[in-house]
Amino acid sequence: MPAVLPLGDPVPDDGRLPSSCGEAVRRSLAAGVPRTFSLYVHVPFCTVRCGYCDFNTYTAPDLGPGASRGDYVDTAVAEVGFARRALEDSEVPARPLHTVFFGGGTPTLLPAAHLVRILDAAREAFGMVDGAEVTVEANPDTVDEAYLRELAAGGVTRVSVGMQSAVPHVLATLERTHRPENIPAAVDAARAAGLDVSLDLIYGTPGESLGDWRTTVETAIACRPDHISAYSLIVEEGTKFSAQVARGQVADVDPDDQADKYLLADELLEAAGFRWYEVSNWAHDPQETGAHRAEHNVAYWRDMDWWGIGPGSHSHVAGVRFWNAKHPAAYAQRLATGVTPAVGREVPDAEARLLEQIMLHVRMVEGLDVRVLEQAEDGGAAARARIPQLIAAGLIDGGLAQAGRIVPTLQGRLRNDHIVRELAGF
């Protein structure tokens, strides 16, 4: 999340959306085109702020009325109710929740009963589809079997554990507080509770060798999770890491090193029955049935609709994007006075929408439908002319391109930004 939220256009106090939102959803439903609705719940609390993190998180347990760890549940539930009323008033057709995701921060710093209460409120407000995916992010230090059983009993189906690394000195550089042995313990506890498990990894940390990274990936595989995400470390402006790099205290990330680690991860994961479905995500799917994908994130990549609960959360409904006040106290105060927590919104123009579609779709194994390029001012002529060059460079699959889909090869996944620039024409 950027240090400063965009300004955008003002949002009415009642949170009402433009009439175009309801019209767009009704058209989709009438045409039988899937347009799912999801909920993201941001829990902004952490015990320690990691040096690389630029998320909207806070280490203080009490950030003012309605924004302390103890009463945050009431504020989040209040926004769930506000969201339901705003969508009804905007005449956006009601849709049951397809997925729910509790992110952070560290959601598991809150009592399990608080997360379940928010989920209950969401279920009552919107309903949920059968088999809806409900995920909670977890620091391995903050969960045990009893906690996870309470989540599962309340309707949570999946836990995403922040593993990052299995090597102590790498965890220390990242300022993670858990020990490597906490990871299999957390996975075992989740399994005992009947939950699906995802592990999140970070590669390219200064001082991490290729052997260290191999240890991390092999340790993750040995835990037998359903899903693994692997993200390259990015030194974000304004973070502690960024300042350390600027002072020469920590080496900057090395793109070539990160590329080598990505290739190693893909090799090890493929051999273990994991299949990539998005550039940074692999699902355990030996039979290639599409099992175990993170459906909430897939909804983002496919440009579906979601409402973001919590300070700084972003939402998207039928082409309209809006975002909440960033500080928890300001966010809670707005809800306490009965006005929308959203402080800005925008409707991206046709050019921006096309760029988003290209950026998101070429990250996925299904790729980008070439017909999407026809939305460009020239009808996609310039982008189509560059496709043979991308094939020749080994960055996209030639056979699939001829069949009408732009799908990155393994080398293309490493140079995904280049593919986007070529197709978008900049």
Automatic annotation (TrEMBL):
UniProt-listed Pfam families: Radical_SAM
Keywords: 4Fe-4S, Chaperone, Cytoplasm, Heme, Iron, Iron-sulfur, Metal-binding, S-adenosyl-L-methionine
Claim: Aminoacyl-tRNA synthetase is one of the keywords in the record: no
Keyword Translocase included in the entry's annotation: no
Protein's cellular compartments: Cytoplasm
Bilayer-spanning residue ranges: none
Gene3D superfamilies (UniProt xref): 3.30.750.200
Annotated Radical SAM core domain residues: 31-275
PANTHER family, per database record: COPROPORPHYRINIGEN III OXIDASE, RADICAL S-ADENOSYL METHIONINE DOMAIN-CONTAINING PROTEIN 1, MITOCHONDRIAL
Function: Probably acts as a heme chaperone, transferring heme to an unknown acceptor. Binds one molecule of heme per monomer, possibly covalently. Binds 1 [4Fe-4S] cluster. The cluster is coordinated with 3 cysteines and an exchangeable S-adenosyl-L-methionine.
NCBIfam families: hemN_rel (TIGR00539)
Recorded family membership: Belongs to the anaerobic coproporphyrinogen-III oxidase family. HemW subfamily.
Name recorded for this polypeptide: Heme chaperone HemW
Species of provenance: Micrococcus lylae
